[in-house]
Write a structure and sequence with these properties.
Blueprint: H1 2-27, H2 63-67, E1 69-70, E2 73-74, H3 84-97, H4 99-102, H5 111-114, H6 126-129, H7 133-142, H8 156-174, H9 182-194
Antiparallel strand pairs: 1-2
Helix pairs in contact: 3-8, 7-8
Length: 195
């Protein structure tokens, strides 16, 4: 019985200490955001960030990747290799974010347009076929005309994947037999002869 009493007494002592520590931490002197401070000469408790401070993970110093620009001009190239995985991701993202207006073929006659929204240009117009990849990236990031910006909804690499898929759509509509690699061309000609 005596051991049980001792354990209960020690437990009560620790419990009381915990409450006191919690209360002491709660009541300690501190400043809340934007509270007035007599300590600093400008009387602001919230201190300005040192010049050049960038939040961790938000340093966007690659103009090509983050802005679609190279030396102040629209990027003519992609900032990373376009692989089949990138194209598949681009198709998936295009079908989610772009096809409602641009339709799945990129002709500009999506379901939203069929219900009265202003028709966007077809990606197959010569003007857009001649446009740099950075142009499309900028339109996705910043919006264009009736199109809102998608900077908050579509991450940087997915924007580029969509641009790669748009390029694939443009090529598919305007490809010639000369665009097919020689090793694949023979298989196409054999298939064509069989039909």
């Amino acid at each position: 019985m005596r051991n049980l009493f001792t354990i209960a007494l020690i437990g009560a002592a620790f419990a009381g200490t915990g409450c006191e520590l919690r209360q002491a931490m709660y009541d300690q002197p501190k400043y809340r955001p934007l509270q007035r401070s007599e300590f600093f000469s400008d009387q602001r408790a919230s201190r300005p960030l040192p010049e050049g401070t960038v939040a961790r993970g938000l340093l966007k110093d690659d103009e090509h990747l983050y802005d679609g620009m190279e030396n102040g001009a629209m990027a003519q190239t992609f900032p990373f290799p376009v692989t089949s995985e990138v194209l598949a991701r681009g198709q998936e993202r295009f079908n989610i974010f772009c096809a409602p207006c641009h339709d799945m073929a990129g002709s500009g006659n999506g379901m939203v347009v069929q219900r009265g929204y202003k028709k966007p240009a077809s990606f197959h117009e010569q003007r857009l076929r001649d446009s740099a990849p950075g142009y499309f990236y900028g339109a996705i990031k910043n919006g264009f005309g009736q199109m809102p910006n998608y900077a908050d909804q579509i991450p940087v690499r997915d924007r580029w994947a969509i641009v790669a898929y748009i390029r694939a759509l443009q090529l598919s509509r305007n490809a010639t037999i000369d665009d097919v690699p020689p090793e694949e061309r023979a298989a196409l000609e054999t298939a064509k002869a069989g039909h």
